[in-house]
Amino acid sequence: MRRNKYPIIENLQITEIAAEGKALGRDNDIVVFVPNTVPGDVVRVQINNKRRRFMEGYVLEYLTLSPLRCEPVCEHSGECGGCKWQFLPYEKQLEFKQRQVFDQLSRLGGVELPEIEPIIGSQKTEYYRNKLEFTFSNKRWITREEVAQGADITEREGALGFHIPGMFDKVLDVKKCHLQAEPSNAIRLAVRRYAIDNSLEFYDVKQHTGLLRNLMIRTSTTGETMVVVVFAEDKPQIRTKLLDFLLATFEQITSLCYVINSKLNDSIADQEVLCYAGKPYIEEVMEGLRFRINPKSFYQTNSEQAYNLYKVTREFANLKGDEIVYDLYTGTGTIANFVARSCRKVIGVEYVPEAIEDAKYNSALNGIDNTLFFAGDMKNVLNRDFIERHGRADVIILDPPRAGIDASVAQTILEAAPKSIVYVSCNPATQARDLAIFNEAYRVARVRPVDMFPHTHHVENVVLLTRR
Ligand SMILES: C[S@@+](CC[C@H](N)C(=O)[O-])C[C@H]1O[C@@H](n2cnc3c(N)ncnc32)[C@H](O)[C@@H]1O
């Protein structure tokens, strides 16, 4: 057997939660990051990465379990890639997220901060997601429990579930997922059973063979359900039978769609989605506003917390009715439409053209006539000329992707000099970097995290910047 070139640390005390959901301890003053641990754990660790100032490793043995730990609700905890913080009580998760926001903004941003307002926790800690995407695979992951029970690991009945972290070709067959309300579990289990009973082939991602690739389920707070089945090739008879089976079994399905994706990767962003039965969209409602969601549209995945996030955003924007607002990185224009009735006009910019079509549609659907939406890359669209044409913004709302905003976009915003900037971020580390750019001209007036994703380390954070 090949010896590991890195050492084993026999007895590591975990003392802190670090960024990205890892926890850390110290070995002779060297920081050691270890996933799947919490402060209070004592662990035996195999190091697998050693740098000058830190090491990374994984747990070989838990010597003492932290008193902070609780029993995970899900049988897949520890093996599934989602919900990695299930072993922490929800109040502790919120405490760690709140601290993480403070640490990131103060350490990485180096800006002066007001007191961080209490994180808004999710009322629902289970069944809070409105969208899940499952993968079919002929390489079912054999769980540790099955191995311990002496299972026949050559048994390869197809799986329908989530990828094992770091293993693109292994999929955990999910028995019950606690993330999405019914009929989500029932639909996934029924589709898998139907596929096995009818000898439909589950996809092999290495060989690129097999028929069934992905299953997406979207549910709305209005009780609608969308199902999208992704096939690797078009076999109309088989496809029709499977889709008819779904329709006959689940009267809750209001939108049944399919995609034929014969590409090498799973993304359906560039594929045609065909509606087989029902409507080609579902609707979400927020404060009386209706939002039409197509199979490919982005919509915040925790609907209740999206409402809280937008309320914080609107409160921070403090609109009186006569302002020009820019909603940059507008997605399908949900924030733009949400604040439109509180101001003179809203300009939304986003680079996905279909999302901009949705944004326009949603304004029209709600009788909102003071929004304008533009598709294009932010650094090309937002320039002096654009600002002169549409009017200087009094308030700029930013909700960029995890990478944060481009330095040139920050410069254009500085030149535009709005009275305030409301920065919504799903990554406090890049948000901190960007706040440092604004620091000379803007002070951080308010900070409020919102938890969109219970049982994960992810946190959404809203910052209000006001001109100095
Ligand atoms: C976090 S989402 C914003 C979601 C939206 N505010 C909402 O709440 O539904 C970020 C959006 O930025 C868009 N985006 C990413 N990079 C961009 C760029 N360089 N220019 C314009 N839009 C971009 C993405 O397509 C995505 O819709």
TrEMBL record:
Any one GO BP annotation for this protein: rRNA base methylation
Keyword vocabulary terms for this entry: Methyltransferase, S-adenosyl-L-methionine, Transferase
Active site residues of this protein: C426
Transmembrane segments: none
Protein name: RNA methyltransferase, TrmA family
Similarity section: Belongs to the class I-like SAM-binding methyltransferase superfamily. RNA M5U methyltransferase family.
Molecular function per GO: rRNA (uridine-C5-)-methyltransferase activity
Highest taxon, organism lineage: Bacteria
PROSITE patterns linked: SAM_MT_RNA_M5U (PS51687), TRAM (PS50926), TRMA_1 (PS01230), TRMA_2 (PS01231)
A Pfam short name: tRNA_U5-meth_tr
Cited InterPro entries: MeTrfase_TrmA_AS, MeTrfase_TrmA_CS, NA-bd_OB-fold, SAM-dependent_MTases_sf, TRAM_dom, U5_MeTrfase_fam
Residue sites binding S-adenosyl-L-methionine per the record: Q300, Y329, E350, D399
Domain TRAM: 1-61
